[in-house]
Design brief:
The chain is of the alpha+beta class and about 190 residues long. The chain contains four helices and nine strands. It has a domain of about 130 residues: Pnp Oxidase, Chain A, CATH 2.30.110.10. It is globular and about 55 Å long.
Length: about 190
């Protein structure tokens, strides 16, 4: 599969900003069951194979999983400070858990690639559950080869990408859309 123009631009932005640790952080917006927006910061973990699909990790007990299972659309806003670029992505999301055959290998590979402190966060109590500050915080060591049942992936399958280069005058902006035949169409637009 040939690399799409927007993905090539995103890969270049990641490369140009490789010395900025937080350049791998992006904002992920979902929709709550009552229709309100929910937004959080997630970490880019790569692409699914050679596809354009973006991977982030999640605790399967987190609110975003229920939100995406109910309404599988997500918005991403990603800013790269060194190159002064912004990518806004509209994507259909899928959840990969321990029972998902598709991307199971990727789930295990990503688990093995996480640092131990991140892996340990999956041994913490369920996200959003009450915390008793009088009790010591408990976490356990993990098996680096076998992810726990609550470790999952959110796979974002982009359908629209808006790429804005803020450097320069005038600024540059491109809009990309996946057509009904599964081909990307792109055009330069006014910033």
């Amino acid at each position: 599969m040939p690399e799409t123009l927007w993905r090539a631009s995103l890969v270049l932005a990641l490369y140009r900003n490789r010395h900025v640790a937080h350049a791998r952080y992006m904002q992920l917006a979902t929709t709550c069951s009552d229709g309100r927006p929910a937004n959080r910061t997630v970490v880019f973990r790569g692409f699914l194979g050679e596809s354009d699909s973006i991977i982030v990790v999640t605790n399967l007990h987190s609110a975003k999983v229920a939100e995406l299972q109910s309404i599988p659309w997500a918005g991403v806003c990603w800013y790269f400070p060194m190159s002064r670029e912004q990518f806004r992505i509209t994507a259909r999301a899928s959840i990969v858990d321990g029972n998902t055959a598709e991307a199971a290998l990727t789930r295990c590979e990503i688990w093995r690639g996480l640092v131990e402190s991140t892996r340990r966060s999956f041994t913490w109590p369920e996200p959003g559950s009450p915390r008793d500050s009088a009790q010591p915080f408990m976490e356990s060591e993990t098996d680096p080869e076998n992810p726990p049942a609550n470790f999952g992936l959110v796979v974002l399958h982009p359908v629209e990408v808006d790429h804005l280069e803020l450097d320069g005058n005038p600024q540059n902006r491109w809009a990309y859309r996946l057509d009904e035949a599964g081909r990307w169409q792109g055009r330069e637009v006014h910033p």
